[in-house]
Amino acid sequence: MIEQQRYVAQDLEIFAAQVLAKAGMDDRLSDTVARVLVEGDLLGHSTHGLALLAPYAAELEQGGMTRAGAPKVLADKGAALLWDGERLPGPWLVCEAIDALIPRARQFGSASLVIRRSHHIACLASYLLKAVEQGMLIVLASSDPGGKSVAPFGGTEAVFTPNPIAAGIPASSPLLIDISASVTTNGMCSRLAKQGATFDEAWLIDAKGNPSHDPQILFDSPPGTILPVGGLSAGHKGYGLGLLVEALTGGLGGYGRADDAQGWGASVFINLYDTVGFAGKDEFVRQMDWLAAQCRQNRPRPGVPAVRLPGDRALALRRQQLDQGVLLQEAIEPAMRELAVRYQLQFPACKDNQE
What are the residues whose beta carbons fall under 8 Å from the beta carbon of 285, sequence distance 6 or more? Predict the structure, then answer.
């Protein structure tokens, strides 16, 4: 078996930015998008990191993603903003939105921004540290009004996308929550279907409502659907969460599934809470650290080595990969090498060859 190579994170960022620029993205945007994609892999979200580089390049070439420009401000009430993203790159829009919200959250205690007509925003966890490092609690949610792969609980016809929601919570070791209203993602279904692999559990139903382990049914005609969180027995929980995300994104944005949304994109909700603006950052961290200790010191059930907090594994992996190099999921590197050939770019050297 050939050992997989590791790559310096900064080299991957430079390469990704070069690819996006070659595909037509303005340099002012491409550096940010590249950084967000690499951050996804650093945190272990390999379906929503550099795996998106080739699809993003294709969207740029085909005109599905706007190459340059700025969002249009549709409403500004100080602590509440609405942007039209003009189908600009989602990672750049979200980073710009967080930068815009930080001073407003400092002023008002909390501030929200909704983006409609954004392009895809990649891995939600990639943005959390940006806010947490400023002492902010961030809540971030996204839906894609132009897509559907999740049926309402009890139904068989897709209405929703997986509708992820994430939160970054300041603590001595930050808590990074990145979940979705469905039991798995479109990206993981696509990856496994291409590999001819199946899920260990029945996370989907076919078009007739029969449970299935096979992600290929999502791409059949008629298609199956992904189950909401809670599955066949308790999927009302994920169904409710999915509806909440729709309200925060498409509802507040005034643009969603009730409209004729076309193309791969996103409606986005971002809320920042300044911990200083309430009981104070020290008190906030004291409470969260106490809860974190109670969880980590909790007696684990059989087969579980230790109880973790959301973000523990991701942050440890991030530190390791920044030090030892990024290990790309096996399907990602070949696609990136194809991009290097197409755009006549030098593919990054593996980290071992630089030492």
Answer: 170, 171, 172, 275
The reply to whether CATH 3.20.20.60 applies to domain 71-182+233-314 is no
- For 260, residues 6+ apart whose C-beta sits below 8 A from its C-beta are none
- The pTM of this model reads 0.95
Residue 313 one-letter amino acid: R
Q: For residue 4, what pLDDT is reported?
A: 76
- Is residue 273 classed exposed, middle or buried when 0-12, 13-18 and 19+ CB atoms within 10 A define those classes? buried
159, pLDDT greater than 50: yes
> According to the model, what pLDDT value does residue 59 have?
98
CATH architecture of 184-226: 2-Layer Sandwich (3.30)
Q: Quickly name the fold that domain 1-69+325-355 has.
A: Hypothetical Oxidoreductase Yiak; Chain: A, domain 1 (1.10.1530)
Residues of the chain with CATH 3.30.60.50: 184-226
Amino acid letter at 177? I
